[in-house]
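cron nightly-structures :: item 1 of 1
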Amino acid sequence: MGEATLQTFRLIIEYDGSGFHGWQRQKKDRTVQETIEKALAIMTREKVTVIGSGRTDAGVHALGQVASFRTRSRLDAEVFVNGLNSLLPGDVVVSACNPMPDSFHARFDVTSKHYRYHILNRFMAPAIGRQFVWHIRKPLDTAAMSQAARMLIGTHDFKAFEGTGSPRDHTVRTVTDSTVKATGGGNLTYDIKANGFLRYMVRNIAGTLVEVGLGKLSVPDIQEILLSKDRSQAGATAPPHGLFLMDVAYD
């Protein structure tokens, strides 16, 4: 018999990032990528490389991370979903698996991503769900935060919101949605969609919006920060545990 042909699959993955050192495989630390690759190796008896739509940092969560892999295994998509979820730990779930054309690439074919940042704005700290929100005691001016967030919509150079030491050819990105909403009980969400993100960009924006909410920065300061291209002009980096990768879009 001839060698089996390669199949390409797309995974939709949900994970609690609390116990992971981010998405990307590392030599010593536990990562989401390596965890899935180990499960696939058991199923396919091959060394399988899983390609994510992008990295998430240590402590960051995902409801809709996308990844692709290629295998000579004859297993079908439904078997991969059931098999992977039986092998994976409880903090990672594969919610879907689909066969894809050989040309599909989870990273290079991305057209946009949607991130959501969760804030709990009340005096009392939470006991339940504290690993999924940034708790802020002092009252926030959500109207000012919302106004500031809208100023980021459009095509801008986001260098001022990029983590220092990040190697990028350019730092221009197009943001199609940037919205702060109060959802009751002191809960706030910040949603941002863009055609791409710089390292720590969402967390740096979230931290800056919180400084607007606390009155440390004004709404017009957002425009000045963008134009400065200077990371030191923006707010502090928000902690990772409030951040979720919600969705990744493709053509």
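cron nightly-structures :: done
The chain has a mean pLDDT of 95.
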